[in-house]
C-alpha cells in the first residue's frame, strides 16, 4: 500500500437549501474540491458518493453518477455508498483504499444529503429490530447512554450541556456552519426536553449540505499547487453484536479508535485537534473516552475544564460539530475532513488551532441498543 | 495487484418471498456461500452489500451490517453499495479490489432485494432528469432502442422475442429460476404490449432474491476444499454523457466490455458462456454486439440461428437471465457470478455448458436516453 494524500476539499454552507437537489449540492462540493486541488475533472480516476436518503426520497439509485456527470466526471468507476451517518466518511475510506492500492492515481469522495424535505419520517437502520419497533429510536438510545454515564461516573446535566455550548462557540467562527449564534448553558438546559436528560439543543439539527475531498498519490501531489495533507490512517469497522454492551462504553468506538492509532503509529497525546460525531452531547463525551483524550468516565469533567475548547489542550469540533454545523448524514464525514484539512493548512481563520500538525476525524452510524453499526476514524497530518 | 479467486457462491431461489426480509434473504445467501467455500464467518475480512431499495422501502441505512450480523460476520469493515442494477456486481468488484490490493485475505459480496412489496412505485435513476419526468422510464427507453435497431439493421420482432424463448428454455433447467415453464414465440409476441415492440414477456419480471460470493487470495484458496475459480477481470465503468448517443450502439457497454477483455487478456472468441443483462430482449441483442459475439447489427440473426442457445457456439444466459431467472436489482450481479462459477465448476446439471473454461458476467444499470449510468463486466476462468 502506498501513501495517500488529500489535495483538495470543498464544502457548501450547511443549512436549508430548498432550491437545490442532492445531486446539485454534491456537484457544487465536488467543483469546489477540484478547484481547491487545482485539478481537472478528467484526471479523476474513481468516484465514491456518500448518501443515505436519495433512494428513499427521490427514487434515485445512481445519485453519484448524476452528480459527477454535472461536474464533467464520467466514464470512470463510480460507487454509491450508504453506511448511515458514516456514508461520507466510508466514501472517503474507499477513495483512500483505491489510491493506496494503486488502482487509480486520483479519486474523489463526495457526500450530499437533503433533510429539509417533506415526509422524511424516521431515519432508521434496522427494519427488523425489535428494539426500534418498541420505541428505541436514536434519541432514546442516546438518552439511555447519558443516564448510565451520569449514574456510573457522576456526569452532570451541566457537563452534558457544556458540549453544546462549546460547539456553538466554535460554530460562531465557522461561516459554513448552520447555527452560529452563541447560546448559554441555561438556554441549552432550558430548551424542550427530547429524551431525558437530552434537551433539544443537545440533539444535532437536520440540515441540507454537501462536502467533498480529492485524494491522490504523493507522486501526483507533487505536480499540484497546494501542500498535501497526508492520510495517516483511514479505518472503517462495524459493530460487535456478540454480547450485550455496556451503555457507558462503546465497544465499536474503542475498536475503531485503536485501529486508527495503530495504523497511524500515534496516540491521543499526538492529536492537535479532533472532529468527532457529536450527534448528541453525550456522544461527544463518550467519544473523548474512546479516543483516550481522558480516562473512562472522565469525559464530563474534560469538557467542563475547557480542555476541548479552542485554546484548550485538544480542541474538539472546532467546526461546531454536528450539533452546530448541522448533520446531513451523507455529507457529515466529508465535512469533518474539510475541517481537519483546513486546520492543518492553517486556513481556519478565527477558529484556527495554533500550530495544528495532526488531526483526527471520527464518525459513527446506526446506533442501537445492540451496538453501533459502523465507525470510521481518520488520522491526517500536515 | 495480486490474483483473486472465487471460492464460494450461494443463491436462494428467486421469486416471491413474502415471509422473508431483505436482510434475511441476504443472510441466507451469505450462509450458503460460506458453506460452499468451507470457510467460517470469522475468516471474512471485509463485506460489501448490494441493494437498491432497502432504504426506500424499509428505511434501512445499514442493511449489510444487519444481514451479516445474523451470519456471524461483524466488527469488520462493511460497505453498502447502491449502483442501480449493477449494485450486486459493484459489490463483487469492490470485494475483488480489496483482495487484489492485499487489504484483506477474504471478502464477501452479497446482494439482496425485495420487489414484491406494496407501493414500490417506479425505480428511477435520476430525480432531476427531464427525459424521465416526460415519460422516458426504463421500458420506454429500451423500446426506442429496439425500434432504432429494427430500422437500422432489419432486426425483426420475432428475433427480439426469440431471446425470451431461448432464456425460458434455459430457465426450465435451473431450479433457482423464477419462471421455468417453456413458452413459444407466439406466446411471447402475443403477450400484452408494454412499449412497442416490447411485449410483457420481453421485459424482465419483478422478483425477490439474494446471492453471494466469497473471494480470496490464491494463498488462502489453497487451504480450502473447493477448486478456485479465477477472477481474470472485474471492470466497472460509468456512462459517457459527452455527446448524444446512437440508440442502437451503447457506448458504455462497448467500453466496459473492451476494458474487461483488455484486463483479462482475452477476446470474445475465448468465451465459453456469457451471463448478460437481458433486462429486455433488445438489451441482450445489443450486448451481443458490444461483447463482440457478432458484428454490429447482427445480434438479431445471432439469436435466430441458435448460436447463443445451450449447445450453440456461445451460450448466453444459461441460467435463464433476468427475463426468466427474475431481476431483484441488488442481487442480479451476484446471481450471474453464481451461474458462471457453477458452470465453470461443471456443476450446472442439465444446463451445463460442456467443457466450460472461461465465462463472462455483464451487468448494466440506470439506462437513460443520455446513456447508461453504470456497467460491470467480469471475466472468470476455471
What can you see in these coordinates?
The structure is a homodimer of 382-residue chains. Chain A has 382 residues and is an alpha/beta fold. Chain A has 2 domains: 4-117 and 207-231, Peroxisomal Thiolase, Chain A, domain 1; 130-204 and 233-381, Peroxisomal Thiolase, Chain A, domain 1 (3-Layer(aba) Sandwich). The first copy, chain A, contains 14 helices and 11 strands. The first copy, chain A, has helices at residues 22-37, 54-58, 63-71, 87-100, 130-133, 138-153, 157-171, 185-190, 218-221, 251-264, 281-291, 299-304, 321-325, 329-344; strands at residues 4-11, 46-50, 78-81, 106-113, 193-195, 198-199, 209-217, 229-238, 273-275, 358-365, 374-381. In chain A, strands 3-2-4-7-1-8-11-10-9 form a 9-stranded mixed beta sheet, with helices on both faces. In chain A, strand 10 and strand 11 (374-381) form a beta hairpin. In chain A, helix 1 (22-37) crosses helix 3, helix 4 packs across helix 14 and helix 10 packs across helix 11. The two termini of chain A are 20 Å apart. At the A-B interface, helix 1, helix 2, helix 3, strand 3 and helix 4 of A face helix 1, helix 2, helix 3, strand 3 and helix 4 of B.
